[in-house]
Design brief:
By secondary structure, the protein is α/β, with parallel strands linked by helices. It has two helices and four strands; from the N terminus they run E-H-E-E-H-E. It has a four-stranded mixed sheet with strand order 2-1-3-4, with helices on one face. Strand 3, helix 2 and strand 4 form a beta-alpha-beta unit. Helix 1 runs antiparallel to helix 2. The two termini are about 15 Å apart. The model has no long low-confidence stretch (mean pLDDT about 95).
Length: about 110
């Protein structure tokens, strides 16, 4: 845990390598102190069709899915840690957002082969 799903506007790839964005999000989750590196899963999804408000403005939205049981303070710290790392990328005229989502422990299943 967590599962970090990074959604972003494809035009961002003109100024930033996707691997750098992925690394920033992964490092933000790691620096929160809530998870060990091998437990953090990060994946990216680029969008070509989107609208932000009344314009086609570049964006990055991170959904970090974590098992339920963390405090509101821990969730806030995780969101802020990820956002802080993305801000270090010094992207301009962009919307950066982070959302922490609880996954119900009783309905989560996992198998690693």
């Amino acid at each position: 845990m967590p599962h970090c799903i990074v959604e972003y506007s494809v035009e961002l790839e003109d100024v930033l390598a996707p691997a750098m964005l992925m690394e920033a999000v992964h490092d933000g989750a790691l620096r929160s102190g809530l998870f060990a590196g091998p437990d953090i899963k990060t994946r990216l999804v680029a969008y070509t069709h989107y609208q932000v408000g009344n314009e086609k403005k570049p964006f990055v939205h991170v959904s970090a899915k974590i098992l339920s049981g963390r405090s509101s303070e821990q969730k806030h710290m995780l969101a802020q840690s990820i956002l802080d790392k993305m801000r270090l990328l010094e992207l301009v005229n962009i919307s950066l957002t982070v959302e922490i989502l609880d996954m119900d422990r009783s309905s989560y299943a996992k198998c690693v082969n």
